[in-house]
Amino acid sequence: MTHLLSTAGIKLKRAAVGLSLLLMSLLLAGCEAPKPDEVMEVAVQGVLSGGISGDASYAVIASVQHGGSLWNADRAERLYNWNRSAGEYTTFRAADISSEGRVAITADNMDLLVWDVSSGRSLHFWRAPSKVLSLAIGPDGRYALLGMQNNQAAYFDIERGTVLYLFQHGAEVHGVALSDDGQFAITGSDDQSARLWRVKDGALLHTFDHSNQVRTVAMAVDGDMAFTTAQREDAIIWDSASGDALTKLDYRYENFTSARFSPDGKSLALGTFRGDLYLVSTSDGSELAHWKAKARSPWGPGSSGAILALAFRPDKRISAITSDGLLQTFSHQNQ
User: Fold this and answer.
1) What is the mean pLDDT of residues 17-45?
2) Residue 236 near residue 217 (C-beta atoms within 8 A)
3) Which H/E stretch holds residue 41?
């Protein structure tokens, strides 16, 4: 009888554990971050780099499988294949498109290819001073900021193929951004600092020190705020005029891979290495929304994708390029 009672007790305990696990799963499912409401495939396998126009209507993709390409995001249509030569796929490591969607640029080591978005034709072929690790195009498509392997960033005239200013760091420059008013540039380096520059004369305005490599930076549209973050360390919104910290965000252990200020400067979108997308208030750093990017597959290399580029759509939604080859769009009722 004692043995029978013990067996029954074990069965009851197992049932209780099973019920607890079920309730925990339901609770976690209820707390799971919302998924995107639209998903479009822009690469067969993976994406090395990409950029989205200011209104999110166009996206330039540098992919693992098929080189460069331009997409009309509104129609989910690939418009052009962009490579150095017909019949080949170029491994572009950096790519971006101007805010108004007029010009795009792709980088293959030191080689820069400038493209006309409306016709798809190549406008210019230039050579950078060093291997290009990251790039950003100014608002009118005339200038670009190149983050380079030689510990410098170059403010580059796209039409003439000349370097206007070289911005010095103590290590490789992986993070670059330009303000949409064309006045400021920010650079982030493996020397654990970010630096704010005035582009009309190349003057260094402020240095923002961190305790780890700085690979993600952003500038507000009007240049009055800057964002810098070190890997798994502080993420800070700065006042561009004074150089003072406005807000230190409560995401110390996140690894942010992309950032973009909203057109009105009231919010900041942040993408992570694990596919999380956050929307935060620039006034106090409070979290306004949190989404989770859709994975290409439930397991293996396609089970997660870093968010490489972001843009705010006119309808208040946010578009994002993920490293597993998807362009995803997210909405939030409180935006």
Assistant:
1) 67
2) no
3) strand 38-41
Q: Are 90 and 84 in contact (CB under 8 A)?
A: yes
Rounded Cα distance between 223 and 45, Å, is 36
Q: Is 92 helix (H, G, I), strand (E, B) or coil?
A: coil
Q: What is the pTM of this model?
A: 0.88
Sign of CA pseudo-dihedral 91, 218, 70, 321:
positive
251-276 pLDDT, tens per residue?
Answer: 988 999 999 999 999 999 999 999 99
The token pair at 220 is 């507000």
Q: Residue 203's pLDDT band (boundaries 50, 70, 90)?
A: very high
Angstrom distance (rounded) from CA 277 to CA 293: 7
- C-alpha 209/C-alpha 263 separation (Å) is 27
Cα-only R_g, the chain: 22
Euclidean distance between CA atoms 135 and 186, whole angstroms: 11
Cβ atoms of 241 and 198 within 8 Å: the answer is no
From residue 234, alpha-carbon distances to 39, 207, 217, 240 in Å are: 31, 15, 12, 18
Measured between alpha carbons, how far is 298 from 294 in angstroms, rounded to an integer? 9
Q: Do 115 and 125 form a contact (C-beta atoms < 8 A)?
A: no
Q: Is 23 helix (H, G, I), strand (E, B) or coil?
A: helix
Q: Does residue 26 sit in helix, strand or coil? A: helix
User: Three-state DSSP class for 4?
Assistant: helix
